[in-house]
Amino acid sequence: MGFRKLSFAVLLVLVVASVAGAGHFAKDNSSIYLDGKVHLRFDTLHLAWARDGKNLDGLRYRITCLAGKAILNNVEYLDKAIDGKESVRWVQSNNKMAVDFSAIPSHLEKSHIVRVYRDLHINVTPFNLDSGKVRFHIQAAGRDYKVTWEPKSEKIYATW
Questions:
Q1: pLDDT in tens, 69-98
Q2: Per-residue pLDDT tens digits for 52-71
Q3: Which of 9, 48, 65, 77 pairs as cysteine with 90 (C-beta 3.0–4.6 A)?
Q4: CA neighbours within 13 Å on the CB side: how many for 110?
């Protein structure tokens, strides 16, 4: 009986230790209004790093426009890992993506909900999670907004 308990304890420690290296920050179901006219909901925001802790390796986002018109032009990751200066370390597209995910007037029906969803493999080495930010370039309400998510502090804010 004692051997089984010991074996189970050792197995449990090995499983926990194998998962402990990898990690992620996540924020789900957060809303933001742009100019009081465009209502965006960030259904999913995930930023993950590799098991060895040497590089960022994943970004997942799902954004729903609940009211107004919105166009996603780009997504980027920024941090201060190089020379302590904030710089763009990864960009989803070198050109404007122009993904229109504007709300359809009858958006309450599931068949009419418009979302933009991406599950991306990114490779950023070195990285600094203390200063890391994911920035979404969104055109809405006649302006070009930069909606920023700071994973460590879980803040989401917009500037234009």
A1: 999 999 999 999 999 999 999 999 999 999
A2: 888 999 999 999 999 999 99
A3: 77
A4: 0
Question: Could you list the residue range(s) of the whole structural domain that residue 94 is in?
Answer: 22-159
pTM: 0.82
Amino acid at 81: A
pLDDT tens, residue by residue, 33-59: 999 999 999 999 999 999 888 899 999
77: exposed, middle or buried (Cβ count in 10 Å: 0-12, 13-18, 19+): buried
Number of domains forming the structure of the chain: 1
Check which CATH number belongs to the domain holding 149 and give it: 2.60.40
Residue 152 lies in a domain: yes
The torsion region of residue 126 among left (phi > 0), alpha (psi -120 to 50) and beta comes to beta
The CA distance from 140 to 135, in Å, is 15
C-alpha dihedral sign at 147, 137, 125, 61: positive
Question: What is the Cα 58 distance to its own chain's centre?
Answer: 9
